[in-house]
């Protein structure tokens, strides 16, 4: 990344691994459990958060010197809610199909603690450019975990990826199903997302001992 | 610029300014986009009704509506009549033929009747208006009825195409906010297609409805007269919601179909 200084590029790369919002900071778990039963939903949610967090961080950062500290959380909430509603309305008017796909995510974005967490922890104390990079980095870190979890849940739970059957037909018993393989319905349940996130945390910490807390 | 952002007066002024700015911004966005959004919703209703009578551009597994550019024309070619029934006895209170509804003032058409509002009316004790659309599928007359109910998180609704014996010829379901990958799968082909050919009435003509059943041991849905379709894994409450809205809403149409039978016999 020639465009960015080393310090700036760390803002993007850190949240992807060693300071991942889900696996290290344990933020945004709620939506990670709710929507990762299929890969497409995970991807869409990742993109939606990328958009809102990138812009929201910039807006908060621009306002950081005039926001009264007593009501800063409410102000942050209003900024997210406004952004989300405007995006929702614009999509409904000009990309109706897409807005139907996104419908439930719109509400989930507002409640996503990563967004409030980054506003509070980073955007309030940094300039717009760095806040933007931080927002993009954290949203990507979030999206990566969502996609990994979604991949395994959809593959093992429904035998499909992006809704396309990849393991053969479960009812007609073709592909691997002919060998006696069965889809694991448990994978579709939210608790399995927690277990997969747990496994990712395990793998990550066993590879990087510095992450292990006492 | 040194402003004391901790002062109470500043906090209050900031809050007021924020509310005014955000409020007017949202009001402006909402009101300027409203006509476009309503037009989209209107076209979606037509697409949904057409989908229920098998007019769509589906591939093997996906759901593709007819394009928004031709949905208006297709709707008026495929739907020969729009009816409004009265919930008490199934009598027709309004009947619009193709010529009539095409020339009618835009807001008068029965397909624009808000089912949610009508359900609220019925709850309040008033009678409920039931829209019904007469179309054709594979050469036989079908009647499309809108239904609406509750899923796990939010509203679910749909359009059911019935033949004159109340055998389902096609359905379309949609939802406001069911869980993606679980309840949201009511909108998948493999769920909706199962309803095709299912009977709603028993041999004696009693209304049975359809249960979205777990473990009915019929994953290919070969038994069409068992009043059951196979449930979705992890979506029990959404499935129950589907069964309930079919039972509650389609039941109201039974008198109409009884009258229809009497007339044709």
- Low-pLDDT segments, ≥5 res of chain B: none
Largest sheet of chain B: 6 strands, antiparallel
Helical amount of chain B = 25-40%
| Estimated radius of gyration of chain B | 22 Å
Measured by residues with Cβ under 8 Å of the partner chain's Cβ, the largest interface is: A-B, 38 and 35 residues
Q: How many distinct helices of chain B?
A: 7
Describe this entry's structure for a reader.
The complex is a heterodimer of chains A (214) and B (265). Chain A has helices at 6-13, 29-34, 39-62, 72-94, 96-110, 113-121, 128-158, 190-207, and strands spanning 160-161, 164-165. In chain A, strands 1-2 form a two-stranded antiparallel ribbon. Chain A is built from 8 helices and 2 strands. The two termini of chain A are 35 Å apart. With 214 residues, chain A is an all-alpha fold. In chain A, helix 4 (72-94) runs antiparallel to helix 5. Chain A has one domain (23-206). Chain B is built from 7 helices and 8 strands. Chain B has one domain (50-264). With 265 residues, chain B is an alpha+beta fold. At the A-B interface, helix 4, helix 5 and helix 7 of A face helix 1 of B.
Name its key features.
heterodimer; A: about 210 residues; mainly alpha; two-stranded antiparallel sheet; 8 helices; about 65% helix; about 0% strand; globular; B: about 260 residues; alpha+beta; 8 strands; about 35% helix; NqrDE/RnfAE (chain A)
Brief summary:
Chain B: It is a single-pass membrane protein. Chain B: Residues 151-253 form the FMN-binding domain. The complex is a heterodimer of chains A (214) and B (265). With 214 residues, chain A is mostly helical.
